C-alpha cells in the first residue's frame, strides 16, 4: 500500500484510500509512522473491520465522476453475480475495464507495476472497409479487467 500511494501521489492526483479501522492500530503490518506519511499524501476512509469495503469503493468511484479510476486486487465477481441480467453484467464489466487500474509486484518484488485502465472498448471496431479485431494467441481464463492487447487489422480490397 505504501509503495502504491507513493507511486500514485507522484502524479499529483487526488487519492482516496479505503481501508479498515484495524489499520490505525500500530502493528507489524501497519506502522503508525508509515500510516501518517501516507495520510499526508492521500485521503483515507476507514470502514469497520467486519464491513465489506467493496461497496464503499464502488460508491466512491462512481460519486467521484466519470474520469475517476480505482485500484484493487479484487475482481468484484460477487458484485457482478448480484446484477439481475446479462446486459447489466456486461455494462458493469465494461465500466470496470475502463476504470480499474490493476497493480502487480515486479518479479523481484522490489517495486510494483500498474496496468492502466483501458481508454477503448475491447470489441470489434470498424471504420469504412477496415476491421480491428482483438485476439489472444492462446486461450486462458481471464479476469474481467484482462483483455486482449493484440489486434488483428483486416482491410477489404
UniProtKB/TrEMBL annotation:
Q: Name one Pfam family in it.
A: PRORP
Q: Where is the PRORP domain?
A: 2-153
Where's it found, cell-wise?
Mitochondrion
Record key words, sorted: Hydrolase, Metal-binding, Mitochondrion, Transit peptide, Zinc
- InterPro entries to which the protein is assigned, alphabetical: MRPP3_PIN_dom, PRORP_C
- What are the GO cellular component annotations? mitochondrial ribonuclease P complex
- Where is it mostly found? mitochondrion
Gene Ontology biological process? mitochondrial tRNA 5'-end processing; tRNA 5'-leader removal
Q: Name one GO molecular function term.
A: metal ion binding
Q: What family is this protein classified in?
A: Belongs to the PPR family. P subfamily.
Q: What is this protein called?
A: MRPP3 ribonuclease
User: What organism does this protein naturally occur in?
Assistant: Neodrepanis coruscans (wattled asity)
